[in-house]
Amino acid sequence: WLLLQSVLLASCLHSAAAFPKGCYPSEEEGLKTFRCSNARLTEVPKDIPNDTNKLYLDSNRIPFLPRDAFRDLPLLLELDLSHNAIASVESGAFRGLADHLLALDLSSNRLVSLSKDAFSNMKAKVNLSNNPWLCDCRLQELIRAVDLAAGSSGGIVCDSSVQEEHVGKAFLQVIADTDFCNVYKKTTDIAMLVTMFGWFAMVISYLVYYVRQNQEDARRHLEYLKSLPSKQRRSEESSTISTVV
Predict the structure, then answer these.
(1) Exposed (0-12), middle (13-18) or buried (19+): which is 94, by Cβ within 10 Å?
(2) Sheet architecture: strand order including 54-56
C-alpha cells in the first residue's frame, strides 16, 4: 500500500513538474481546462495536455504566435489569448483548430495588422477588440472573413488609418461609409495609368527626336550635294537614291 502511494505521489509530482510554473489542469462544467492565466509566459507552452477543451493563456507576455502553435490540441473548444503582447501571428498559427474551435479571444493585445489567412476556414467566434488597429483594406478583408464575437465589434477602433479623419472611430462605423479596398484599387489604377502615360510620353519623345534628327541629317546632306559641282552632284544623288532603294 505504501509502495502504491509512493508511485501515485511520484506520478502526480512528475505531471505537475511537466507544466510551466503557474499553469494547472482542472475540470470546469465537465470540460478539461488548462489555466495559465497571469503566469508570466513569454511563449505558448509546449506541454499542454492534448485532451484540453478550454485553454486560458490570458494576462501573460506572449509577443507572437508561431506556426502550428496549437496543432496538438484536437479537442480544443475555447482559446483565451487576451491581455498579452501579441503583435504578430504567423500564417498557420491556428492550423488544426478550424473544425472544432468555438471561441477565440485575441482582445487587448498589440495587433496593428493581420492577414485574413490567419483565420482560414475558422468557424470560431473571434474577439479582436482593444488592439491598436491600422484601419485599411487589410483590416476590412479580415473583418469580413471572421465571425466576430457578440458585443466585440464596437471595440475594434482605428488607432491609425490611411485617412486621418477615421482615427478614434469604430471600424465598423467607418466602413459603413468608406470602402478601403475600393479606394486602394482606384489609387493603384491611377498609379498604373500615370506609369503607362509616362512610358508613352517617353516613346513619343524618342520618336520625335529620332525624326527630327533624321530630318536634320537629310537637310545637311542636301546642302552638301548642292555645294558639289553638277556632275559630281548627279553622281552623288544617284548613289544616294540607289542606297535608299
Answers:
(1) buried
(2) 24-28, 31-35, 54-56, 78-80, 103-105, 125-127, 147-148
- Determine the 3-state secondary structure of 152 from DSSP: coil
Collect all residues with Cβ–Cβ distance below 8 Å to 133 and sequence separation of at least 6.
Answer: 111, 112, 113, 139, 156, 157, 158, 159, 160, 171
CA dihedral of 211, 215, 221, 226, whole degrees rounded to 10: 160
Residue by residue, pLDDT tens for the chain (245 residues) are 443 343 333 344 334 457 888 999 999 999 999 999 999 999 999 889 999 999 999 999 999 999 999 999 999 999 999 999 999 999 999 999 988 999 999 999 999 999 999 998 899 999 999 999 999 999 999 999 999 999 999 999 999 998 889 999 999 999 988 999 986 444 444 445 445 555 656 766 666 666 666 766 666 666 665 665 665 555 555 554 444 34
- Which residues, including other chains, have CB under 8 Å from residue 68's CB and lie 6 or more apart? 92, 93, 95, 96
Contacts with 234 (C-beta within 8 Å, 6 or more apart), sequence order: none
Which positions ≥6 away from 188 have C-beta within 8 Å?
none
Q: What is the pTM (predicted TM-score) of this model?
A: 0.69
Q: How many residues does the chain have?
A: 245
The answer to whether 39 and 58 have CB atoms below 8 angstroms apart is no
E strand or H helix at 239 = helix 230-244
